[in-house]
Amino acid sequence: MPVEWQPVRQSRTHELVLQSIEEQVFAGKLRAGDRLPPERELAPVFGVSRSALREALRVLETIGVLVAQPGRGPDSGARIVRNPDGALGRLLRLHFALGSYGLHDVLEARVALERSSFAAAAEHAVPADLDEAETVVRQMARQDIAPVEFNELDTQFHVRMASGSGNALTSTLTAAVRESVRPLILRALEDVDDWPATQAHLNGQHAELLRLVRTGQGEEAADLAEAHIRGFHGSLVDDAGEGPADGNAAV
Length: 251
Hints:
By secondary structure, this protein is mainly alpha-helical. 67% of the residues lie in helices and 3% in strands.
């Protein structure tokens, strides 16, 4: 059905533009892949300035529902997309850095999400997901690997296993929560006294998690996932002096 654009009120203009675009999405008139009209056409329809329209479009681009291509070619302009993973991770990382959530909050969220995702992956993961996870585990086992690369691969492993759960939202949330503490975990990895021993221990747990999922042992995988997360991530909570009562402390 055709999209019907309506003028918006002038107070807090860009938010009203956002609201109007959201309404079209909720009504099913705008879907992923659809292109918005050019700014020169859309701004007069809304009854707003092009700068106010651009501000609204930038917000949509930041939250991962719109991509804008400059220029005049066939691929130029603004297009509705579905790209929540990076946007949620960036948003959560900023709020974590600002102290909106403490380490204890993130720890418990990770435990809940990954217990669920590893248990579900043992039932639903397809061989391609598990093969990719195994490739990551092999890469993390290299003797010359540095903490920064290990940390990136560690994130990939957990996100890959979450995607194997068959629940797209669980996968996205797992990626966002793990991404939010990635810089902090990297600093902790770089500060360990015996990096080779830490690498071997953590990756041994990754290999065992993968084995449990491959053999359909979901409950055992969930238990090990919790122990794995509480072991290293939990030590960060202890070092920061956080507990359930002060989980909103900034770090």
